[in-house]
């Protein structure tokens, strides 16, 4: 219940998108029936017609013991469970039959027509005419008739049957239960499913926010898919760009057969098909960190190994599995951020806090979990972008946008960019944004109405380039 009420459903089936998370927050959703209704009113037709807002308003009025004015008493009687708002396809049938007097057959023709399943346009037009005729016979105010028909029309192609919504809600509820009680195991399952709303990076982030320690791929711990050992989550080889799938599957199989790898040379002998380039990828990601050697040392040893391999007679067979001789190497300097840039290039994201890679350490005057204290006030915050969505205004059809970010502490916040802001300050790809705007609130959910935005540079151009290349290669 806490996950639903507080918009923390990332990773959960059908309820993880920004729009759905905010809807559940506005409804203070805490039970299955509310979740069923939410699964339907989020659909474009219902939400764009204003019925979603009406549902939320009436929900809150009812929760406070008040009463609301519906379009017509019959509408309220027919849909008391949803506060007189048409939410499901069945509601179209009930309204057409009980409100306008259509037969059930005619009402179903109307429902099918709104779903784009015409038997014939002539038949649909005849039923539509019968709807208005029936309303006139019952002496309804024409404005009421037009409004009811408008709500019916909003279902065109975008509505759920109640059974459909209920089945979605069952899976959503099960997902929420698993996330609430087994957050790390659940997030690993989401990561391995590869079918969520967000990029994989943010499911790893969500696991970290729930107490998981995200570990780079390790030849002695990782499998092809991501695995969990206690609180340690080992990224699977499947996530490494340019690593051959056969190799990613062979590494854990060989380890299961003959035990952990003892060194890089031991690894190479047990995986003889691997080439230097594939080995370099694993070394750059720290997959041999169990050796206690630096990446430079491991790369040097690898080149020596392959050089000696070429010079070694092919008829020579090693009788014993001996460890290689150690050679003294000069001290090799490495920037502390090189690992993060390697991770961005090879995994698509860094394993450190991304904010460590920002050139500036100025993160604004507010944090995501403090927005409720700044309602109606101007704020300044730096965010790492999670996702964006383009949209159009209802009346003028101008371009606007929505954004979802997390702050330096990893907490998620949402933004709205109305047409003027969207034109002046467009999103410019993945990375960090400096945001200024006013905190607005609707039914207990807080977002930032952005009036100024600028993209921030990273500590060097390699990071910006790696982010750009990673975004371009993301499917």
State the main characteristics:
alpha+beta, DNA polymerase, domain 1, 4 domains, elongated
* Shape descriptor: elongated
What oligomeric state is this?
single chain
Question: In terms of structural class, how would the helical and strand content be classed?
Answer: alpha+beta
Distance between the termini: 33 Å
Question: What features would you describe in this structure?
Answer:
This protein is α+β, with helices and mostly antiparallel strands and 475 residues long. It has 4 domains: 44-159, no CATH class; 212-325, DNA polymerase, domain 1, CATH 1.10.150; 334-352 and 462-475, no CATH class; 360-456, Nucleic acid-binding proteins (OB fold (Dihydrolipoamide Acetyltransferase, E2P), Beta Barrel). It has 20 helices and 8 strands. Strand 2 and strand 3 (232-234) form a beta hairpin. Helix 11 crosses helix 12 (183-193), helix 12 runs antiparallel to helix 13 (200-209) and helix 16 packs antiparallel against helix 17 (295-311). The longest helix is centred in the middle third of the chain and has 20 residues, at 162-181. The mean pLDDT is 89.
